[in-house]
Each structure stands twice: as structure tokens, then as C-alpha cells.
Amino acid sequence: MTSIDMGVDGAGKATGIDLEELLATRLLVQGNSGSGKSHLLRRLLEGSAGKVQQIIIDPEGDFVSLCDAFDHIAIDAADHSLPDIARLATRIRAHRASVVLNLEGLEMEGQMRCAATFLGALFEAPRELWYPALVVVDEAQVFAPSAAGEVADDARRASLGAMTNLMCRGRKRGLAGVIATQRLAKLAKNVAAEASNFLMGRTFLDIDMLRAADLLGMERRQAEVIRDLQRGEFLALGPALCRRPVSIRIGAVTTEAKGGGPSLLPLPTAAAGDMRDLLFAAAPVEPMPAIVAPPPPPSADELIQAMGAPAPVPDLPVLGAAEQEAAVSAAIADIARDADPQAPAAVLYQDLLLRCRMRGVTVTLDMAGFRRRLAFARAGIEDEAEWTDAITLAASLPEEMLPPFLALACAAREQADCPTDPELAALYGTTSMGRAKRMLAHIEEKGLVVVRTDLSGKRSISLPHLGWTTGAAVADPDKPAPPPRMSSREARALASRR
């Protein structure tokens, strides 16, 4: 058992957190402002540093000081775009780096969007990157509010969904959520209910005391104890802490927040009259800059002699309409082959414009036309005229389902093997096999395809409107094949031996 020393209980006995159990059961910390939540989180992070990967979402920039004492990397979210944040999250999981995501420079809505993108990328990382990690979220009520606020609904839903995934489904992906909040009433119930370990600090409102008492398994008449807790004192309960509520006083830490706590300072000793003169003193008069007459402008002949004859700029080569169309088609084919399938269409469209400018080609294709031609290129279709019937069928599908449907049509027309789930997921712009299967089920519900899976696990897909059918192939090559079926003769022989 790997135990992290957190402090002492009421009898002066050292008390800690079982780190391995914490990774499996998650932790919720609650307490009013000034109750010592950040101090508690810092004690936990310092004690577990070097033993487990730590990923800290820091809305106030309080935990950046950990980077000076440990090997943590500070990421200032204000300096990066949302796609950069998503890429950084994937690399963090791949390299198992401990980081502090500093959201201090963003407004609340920006903090929610950034946290949603970051947590979503951590959650969607490939299976081979599911290493154990503590994901600490301070001020969790900002990212998982119990009610709508002044931020946009899409930002609130994205942030709340990411926090729910972290606390509800993160354990299987190695993500152990540790969240801290000022008030349980402000935190979404679906997020708070998934924690199995609790550290409840001082709070004064009745609704928060009653909820804290319920989570600790205490009777409601005992809830007044929570109001009497001192700063840095918490009631603990959970499989990683203790089986019965115990009071813990959190120990000292070696690092400090950049701002420190409030403290008294001596007031200035100036007399009231002098202070009034200081406050209402006239603004200093800045000296006027000396006026210097500008030199007379040079004559036209002098300017021409000074500039010299400019070197002529050669004209761009003039390409015919067919050559320009071929260049655009080649650029779209290169993007379909090389670009990340999950990259936004707007980013890929800018890539097309840049590639065409480098070749001296003017692009007249709009965004809608680009998405359409990119879908054809990803499906392997070169001549749209030959696929009029399949394109007509696809008109009832959402735009993002066009590439996988056309790929199915190509395979069915050529009677090639049915595309696998990973191939369909890549065309759909995701790494989730579940999303790919739901997409295929949606197309089948539309009546555009018929999916058949034989007893050996091989799948074939037909397009009944066109009379095309793919060859049978295993849907998921990574899934182990089922054992071979036993013939009736072998079954009778085995039964006779028994």
C-alpha cells in the first residue's frame, strides 16, 4: 500500500490517503473560501509527486509554484488555441508528464471551453495511453455548475459533460478525479455523487452542511460539527481514507501559492492633511516637446535617384482552366491522404488555399464545395459523374457521414472487402469504435444499407437501392476471432467420452 501522509487526527495519530485506492475511487473536497482546500490539495500533490502522474486544472494560477519544486510543466492556456490544447493533452498522456494547466488569463467562459477541450482529449486518448494519473480540478463548481449561469449554453454543456466523463467513466481510462469546490450546492450532483472519498471542511450554510453530513453518513443533528471545524481541519471518509468519519488536521507544505494568504500590514503614518494633499495633488505638467521644423521634402528627381530603378517582378505563370482544376484536385487528394481526419474543415480549407497559392492557382471553391470534394477524395472517388446514384442516396445523411457511406459504396461496387470499424471511424473523423458503430447503425436505420454478420464474425454490407454488396470481412481486426464451431459428429464423440 502506498500511503500519502496528510496530517494527524484528533488523537494526534498520523493519517494518510491510500494512493492506489484513491486512483480507483476518486476524491471530493468541500469547504468555504479560506477553509484550506488549496492547502489540502497541495499537501496531496506534494506527497504523491514522483509516484503518479499529476494533471492539475488551475483556474487561479495557485499551483504553478509546484513547477519550481518538482518536474511539473506549466501550460499557460492564454497562449494557446483550443486545437493546441487538445494536442498537448494527447502528448501529456503519451509521455506521462505532470502538468499544471493555468487558466488564470481567461474569462470564465474561456476557462470552461479550455477545460472541456483538455479533459475531452485526455478522455479520448487511445487505449494504449491509459496510464494512471491524478486529475486535480480546483474550483470544480466553475466547470460543473448545478445551474445555468451567464456563460453560453454550449460552453456550459461541454464543460459539464467533460467533468461528468472524468468522474463517471474516467477510472477505466486511468484518470482519477480529485475535485474541490466551495459549495456542494453549486456543484452538479452527477459529478459529486461519483466520488467515494470525501474531505469536508468548514461551511456555514444549512443546505451545504446537510449535504456534507449525508455524504459522510452522519445524522442530520450532527451536521453542526461541520460549522465548528477550524481552518485546515477536515472530516474524512472513504475507502482510501477511513471507514468512519474522522477529523484530520492537514500538515504543512513546502511550496506556496504565488499570492500567499492575506495578512495584516501596518498602515501609513502620514497625517490626514498630508494624505489629503497626496490624494488631490494636481497632475504633473509635462514639458512641451521642442518644436523642430521638418526638413524640406526632397524633389521628385531626388526621390527617383534615391530609389533607383526597381527590379521588375516576374508575372506568375498563366495556367489554363483545366490545369488549375487539376492542381486543385491534386491538392485536395494530398490533404485527404496526409491530413488528420479529426482536423476541422475550416483548418483544412485554409491548408488548401495555402497549397494552391504556392502553385500559383486561384481557388474559386467555397467551403461547402470543399467539404463535398474532400469527402469524395477520402472515399477514393475521382469522377463524380460515375457515382450519381450513390451521391443521391447520401443526400439524406449528415455531411460528416458522407465519406464513410461513399467508402462503403465504393467497396460494394467493386465487391471488395467490407471496410473495418477502424477504417470507418477514421473516415468519420473519430477514434471511437462506438461512434463508428452508431454511425453505421444510423445509416442502416435510414434504409440505405443492410448489414449482415455471419457466424464466423465476418461482416458484409449491401446497398439494396443499387444492388451492390461488399465482400465479407472481419469488422474489427483487433478483436480476437471466435473459437471454431464443433461439428455434430465431434460433439457426439465428445458426449460419448464423457
From TrEMBL:
The keyword Hydrolase applies. It comes from the Bacteria. The keyword ATP-binding applies. This is Helicase HerA domain-containing protein. Keywords: ATP-binding, Helicase, Hydrolase, Nucleotide-binding. Residues 471-498 are annotated as: Disordered. Residues 15-71 form the Helicase HerA central domain. PANTHER family: HELICASE HERA CENTRAL DOMAIN-CONTAINING PROTEIN (PTHR42957:SF2), HELICASE MJ1565-RELATED (PTHR42957). One of its GO terms (molecular function) is helicase activity. Signal peptide: none annotated.
